[in-house]
UniProtKB/TrEMBL annotation:
It comes from Massilia agrisoli. It is a multi-pass membrane protein. It is found in: Cell membrane. Signal peptide: none annotated. InterPro entries: Chr_Tranpt_l_chain (IPR014047), Chromate_transpt (IPR003370). Keywords: Cell membrane, Membrane, Transmembrane, Transmembrane helix. This is Chromate efflux transporter. Its main location: membrane.
Amino acid sequence: MSLLPRDTIPPPVTLSQAFWYWLKLGFISFGGPAGQIAMMHTELVERRRWISEQRFLHALNYCMLLPGPEATQLAVYIGWLMHRTRGGIMAGVLFVLPSLLLLILLSWIYLAYGNLPVVAGILYGIKPAVVAIVLAAAWRIGTRSLRNPAMIAIAIASCLAIAVARLPFPAIVAGAAIIGMVGGRAWPHLFQVGGAAVHSSASYGLAIIDDTTPSPPQARFSPGHLLKVALIGAGIGAAVWLLLTSRYGAAGTLAQMGWFFTKAAMLTFGGAYAVLPYVYQGGVEQYQWLSATQMIDGLALGETTPGPLIMIVAFVGFVGGWTHALFGQDSLLLAGIAGAAVAAFFTFLPSFIFILAGGPLVESTRGNVRMTAPLTAISAAVVGVIVSLALFFGQHVFLAGGRIDWAAVAISAAACIALFRFKAGTIKLIAACALAGLMLSYWNG
C-alpha cells in the first residue's frame, strides 16, 4: 500500500519510473489475464495510486469489449493515459517483450533438444495439465458469459459447429455477431453485457488520475485524431507486409504469416484460448507450419512464460520459420526468430491501434445494449469453442498411439482437482505436473 496519506495525491510519475515498472511487470506477469490484471490493480490502484479504482475498471471494461489480449491493452491504455502515445507504446512493448524473448529461447531448446529424455519427460507432464487449464478457462469465461439459456444454446451450437461441422472460426464469430445483433433488438434483456462491473465503492485514497481528474488532451475525442492514428497504424502494418512481400513474395511464409496473424488478432474475443482453434486450423491444417503435437507442446511452453498467452503465436511462427528453412539449412535459428517476430508484430499491432485511436471513445458504447449485444453473443460462442479445444487436446494427449494413456489421464484429473477445488496457481500446477511427467518418464524408461 502507498505510504502517503489517503488525502494526499502522489507525485507525478516520470517516464523513466513508468519504464521500469512496465519492464518489471513484463517479467513477473504470470497467471494469465486474470492474474496480470490483478497485479496491475494491486500495484497501480492500491499501492502506487497512479490511477483510481473507477478509472481502472472503466478502462478494463473497454478492453474487455475489444478483440485482443485485454491485459496487454489495459497496460497500453494506462501508459497512454499517463504519458501520451509514447507512454502507451512503451507500456505495451515492455509488457510483451520479455515473454517473446523467453518463448523464442524455449522454442529453440524445444526444436534443437526436444528429443532429450529430460525435455520429453517434462512435456509429457505439462500437456495433460494444459487440458485441465483449458477446461478451467472455459469454466471461468462461461460463468461470466452464460447467464441465460440463450447464451448456453449459442455456446453449445458453436462447440458443435467447430468440432463436428468443422466450420472455420471466423464463420462462427460472424454467426454469433449476427445472432447478437438480432437478439439485442428483439430480446435485449437476454443480451446484456456480462463483463466486469464499472461501479465500485472501493477507494484507496487520492490518485494521480482520480475519478474527478480532467481528461488529458490526448483523451479528448476528435474524429480527425481517430482517423489519423488508425491510418498510421494500418499504414505501418501494410508497409511491413509489403516489405515482406517484395522480398519473399506474397506466397512466401513470412508474408502469409503477416496476413494470417492479422486476421487472428481481429478474432481474439474472449482471450487466447478462443482464437487457438483458428490458429490451429491455419498453422497446422492450412499452411502446415507445425504439427498438431507441436501445437500442443507450444501451448504447454506458453503456459510456463510470463505475459499474454496469445504469445504462443511466436512459437507457431518460430517453428514455421525453422521447419520451412526460410533462409537455408544453415540459418534455422535466424529463420525461427524471423517467424516469431513477424507473428508477434502482426498479432499485437491491432491492440495498439485500438487503444491509441479509440481510447477517447471509452464511454461511447457503455450501456448501449444494441452496440454490445453482438459482443455478448460472441463471448458465449467463445465458451463453446474453448470446450472444443479442450476436447481436441484431450484426444491427442490421452489417446496417443491409439490407446488410452491412463497416466496422462491421472495427471490431468489431478490438475483439474487442483484448479477447480483448490484454486491452484498456474505456474505451481505446471511445475508439479512437469515433475510428475519427468518421474514417470524415468520410471517407464
